[in-house]
Amino acid sequence: MSEQQPHPFDEPDEPDEFDEIVDSETDRDPDLAVIEAGSRTLRTRAGSPQADQVPARPADPEVDRALREVEADLATRWGETKLEPSVSRIAALMDVLGEPQRAYPSIHITGTNGKTSTARMIEALLGAFDLRTGRYTSPHVQSITERISLDGAPIEAERFIATYEDIKPYVEMVDAAQEFRLSFFEVLTGMAYAAFADAPVDVAVVEVGMGGSWDATNVIDGSVAVVTPIDLDHTDRLGTTAAEIAGEKAGVIKEGATVILAQQPVDAAQVMLKKAVEVDATVAREGMEFGVVSREVAVGGQLLKLRGLGGEYEEIFLPLHGAHQAHNAAVALAAVEAFFGIGAQHARTLDLDTVRTAFASVVSPGRLEVVRRSPTVVLDAAHNPAGARAAAEGVTEAFGFSRLIGVVGASADKDVKAVLEAFEPVFTEVVVTQNSSHRAMNADELAAVAVEVFGDERVVVEPRLDDALEAAITLAEEEAEYSGAGVLVTGSVITVGEARLLLGRG
User: Fold this and answer.
1) Tens of pLDDT along 226-241?
2) How many CB atoms lie within 10 A of CB 43?
């Protein structure tokens, strides 16, 4: 007799302690009641995927050569920072490809911070319930193939190359008919949707590149729309207030969808709820319908008690650091519950053991990731003020370093001063550097900003990243504080990816 597969649902726990979530969230946003009017909300009623590793360059020289050719071809197109706000080109590509994005249901994720980690958690949960998943995220840490994942792992280089070659004639056809050629991100999005249809997947987990309304990913109709915390980033393109940015990101909310809304500034939440009402979408809000009941720091991560749409989930080990990751976990859990119809058709929890197994398998490279010991070196891809604040709080809570040296390499188009100000209370000293990207802020320019924040005596300048890492490790080992010192490399996903390679990861 074959072993019976676990049912996705389990009996609900008795509702207790959830009032604490509501109280704590209301305390943070006392005006939350303002956004209640007119909103339609969900009301709760009483084999794990393999770890997703960052791939190295292909070992086969011929495959590596072919991948480099694809990368070079893609590099001739508009980069991710050059945009023409329209989905007309990607829609045309989907049309000639036969609408591959319609071949599977999707969970669509927008927000300012936490999108990739949340996507990875959603993917792990869905995979643990025996669904074949496709995940599309950006940017990549080290390898372009990271952006397209199947069954919890980046697609192999050979498959990435084959997918590009398959759609290339159609890309060129669309290029010829449009005012502007398809961009780098638009082509990758087309590749992802085609790869998912070809697999085929049971569900796609899709992270927007920027914004929502006119983002290239927004040719899908996500049955579940996830909105992670909104803050100020890409203000030159999305708006200068949380409400303006929310207006762009609300574009992922489609008719009849379920919206999983993380804790938001009140004005951003108002915009999201207004859009949900307009399209008759159902909304579940962190702190009201779901949330984090409790969390404790544990070895290698944290132990959580989460309140989902169908009940409570106790003793969830999450091998990621920081309160922000606990909130991401609550959002991911609610999104998967909504996908399975919990809170609407079903009033039951997911199988607890399966949920525990899934969360315990989650990895998120470059998010408070330890890549070396003695001294401890941690990588975090924080590149905006909100992300920097979360990283600073997380590294303090999880590691308690007696001496923390920062290595910061940032992009010139970011709010660098605010990022540095977020880290100032936790960095003993900071080594400023620059990555290899053309977008990188010059190390001397970054140093001038750092001196304003830290003072001249706490700033070291090392234009080469390898020299910066060596300098930071040396500083961390000073004054006989070897066991209690650490290094945090941050400021940019590119800086983190290059540091990862230099430190022997990937």
Assistant:
1) 999 988 655 555 556 8
2) 12
Cα–Cα distance, 11 to 351 (Å, whole number): 8
> Measured between alpha carbons, how far is 251 from 116 in angstroms, rounded to an integer?
19
- What global pTM score does this model have? 0.89
User: CA angle, 425 as apex, 419 and 429 as ends, to 5°?
Assistant: 85
| Residue 7 DSSP symbol | P
282-318 in b/e form (b: 16+ CB < 10 A) is bbbbbbbbbbbbebeeeeebbbbbbbbbbbbbeebbb
CB atoms within 10 A of CB 208: 24
* DSSP-derived pairing of the beta strands 301-307 and 312-318: antiparallel
Q: Do 381 and 375 contact (CB within 8 A), yes or no?
A: no
Residues sharing a CB contact under 8 Å with residue 36, sequence separation 6 or more, in sequence order: none
C-alpha 505/C-alpha 201 separation (Å) is 29
What pLDDT, on a 0 to 100 scale, did the predictor assign at position 10?
54
Separation CA 407–CA 395 (nearest Å): 14
